[in-house]
Structure formats: C-alpha cells, structure tokens
C-alpha cells in the first residue's frame, strides 16, 4: 500500500528485455536507505519488486523484472534510459497517510491533452478510459503516475488537475509533454463502494 506522496524522481539506467521479462534498472537516492531484495517500490505508481540491488555510494541501482502484462498496461513501456520515474516506498504501519490509499495496481493509461503553465501552477487535462472515468469525481482523488492528486474538473472522457510548483519540481511530471501517456489508478474506496452497492442491488428481495 502506498499514499501517492512521491519521494523522489529516480533515473532509469537500463532497460533490457530477457527471455521471461523486461529488466528495468533505476537509480535511487532518497529511497535507497533500507531498501532490500524482495522489497516493493512504486515506479510511476506501479508496484514492483526489487530483484537486484547494487550500492553506489549513497545511491543504489535497483533492478525490477516486468512481466508483459505490466509492460503492456503501463507507461513504463515508453521510458528510455535517462528518463525520470516517480518513486515511493510502501506506507509504514506507523506512517502518515499524506495522500490517499494507493495500491500500486494501475487501472489503465491516460493521455495528456492539455499541459500548460497557469500563473505559478500548471494545468493538466487527461483523457482516460471509460473504466477509469467511472470512478473520477469532482474533488475526489486519483493517482497519476503514482502521484496523489485532486480532481479539479470532470468531463465525459477526461478530467483536469492542477499541479502546484512543488509537485512539478520534485516529480517526473516536469518531463511530461502533450500526448504523453500517464498511469492512472482510481480511488480504491470508490471501487469498494461500487462493489457493495452493486452486490446489494442484485440480491433477491426477501419474502
């Protein structure tokens, strides 16, 4: 479980296809302390497992094995060596929930349709699949590339969010361009509410 509060923008060092997976190696500094083999790390909001770790001073090179399903469903398929990716370690049981509950299971990819500066901030419009839009509500939460953000406006096939200077500066969003793909994860609470309401509606009436 994660919170959507990105700790750093790591740098992709290597992408290497193998017989069974795609090997993705990322350089991290902030997330490096205490990171061990088998640990989870959210990369652009996608929960991955560290399979190899190499220490280089205060930094670490961490390798992850991506299955084809993960590769096809996320924007990690578009990263290149040198690209920035958002990194977040899992939420500790005694930690603060600064954003919202994020599972690290990407629901789908959205497409940036507007990305421009507005005063000190940036405005970001994202076109999203219908199975994600069904959970997008005004002032609700959504994870975009693993970043917990608040929905500022909702259209039929897209939604808008505002990016403050701090978020722009510390995340990989500063590399995003018009037309780029972003990973989306809808609010977990909304999914459970829909499930419970749907299940109750389908129950036969009691005599």
Strand order, sheet with most strands:
1-2-5-4-3-6
| Poorly predicted residue ranges | none
Mean pLDDT: 92
Number of helices: 4
Quantity of strands, as a count: 12
State the major sheet: 6 strands, antiparallel, barrel
Shape: globular
Strand and helix map with partners:
Blueprint: E1 8-17, E2 22-28, E3 40-43, E4 46-56, E5 59-66, H1 68-73, E6 84-88, E7 108-118, E8 121-127, H2 130-133, E9 141-144, E10 147-154, E11 158-163, H3 165-170, E12 181-186, H4 188-202
Antiparallel strand pairs: 1-2, 1-6, 2-5, 3-4, 3-6, 4-5, 7-8, 7-12, 8-11, 9-10, 9-12, 10-11
Describe the structure.
15% of the residues lie in helices and 42% in strands. It is globular. It is mainly β. The protein contains four helices and twelve strands, in the order E-E-E-E-E-H-E-E-E-H-E-E-E-H-E-H. It has a six-stranded antiparallel β-barrel with strand order 1-2-5-4-3-6. It has a six-stranded antiparallel barrel with strand order 7-8-11-10-9-12. Strand 10 (147-154) and strand 11 form a beta hairpin. The longest helix has 15 residues, at 188-202.
Keywords:
six-stranded antiparallel barrel; 15% helix; 12 strands; single chain; 207 residues; mainly beta
Please outline what is shown here.
With 207 residues, the protein is mainly β. The chain has helices spanning 68-73, 130-133, 165-170, 188-202, and strands at residues 8-17, 22-28, 40-43, 46-56, 59-66, 84-88, 108-118, 121-127, 141-144, 147-154, 158-163, 181-186.
């Amino acid at each position: 479980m994660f919170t959507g509060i990105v700790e750093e923008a790591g740098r992709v060092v290597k992408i290497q296809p193998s017989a069974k997976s795609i090997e993705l190696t990322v350089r991290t500094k902030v997330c490096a302390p205490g990171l061990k083999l088998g640990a989870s790390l959210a990369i652009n909001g996608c929960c991955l497992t560290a399979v190899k770790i190499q220490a280089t001073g205060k930094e670490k090179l961490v390798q992850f094995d991506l299955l084809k399903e993960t590769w096809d469903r996320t924007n990690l398929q578009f990263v290149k060596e040198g690209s920035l990716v958002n990194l977040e370690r899992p939420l500790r049981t005694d930690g603060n929930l600064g954003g919202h509950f994020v599972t690290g299971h990407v629901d789908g990819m959205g497409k940036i349709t507007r990305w421009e500066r507005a005063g000190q901030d940036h405005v970001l419009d994202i076109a999203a699949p219908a199975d994600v839009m069904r959970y997008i509500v005004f002032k609700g939460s959504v994870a975009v590339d693993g970043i917990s953000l608040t929905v500022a406006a909702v259209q039929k096939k897209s939604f808008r969010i505002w990016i403050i200077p701090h978020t722009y500066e510390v995340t990989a969003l500063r590399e995003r361009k018009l037309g780029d793909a972003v990973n989306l994860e809808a609010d977990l609470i909304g999914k459970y509410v829909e499930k419970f309401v749907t299940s109750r509606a389908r129950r036969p009436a009691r005599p």
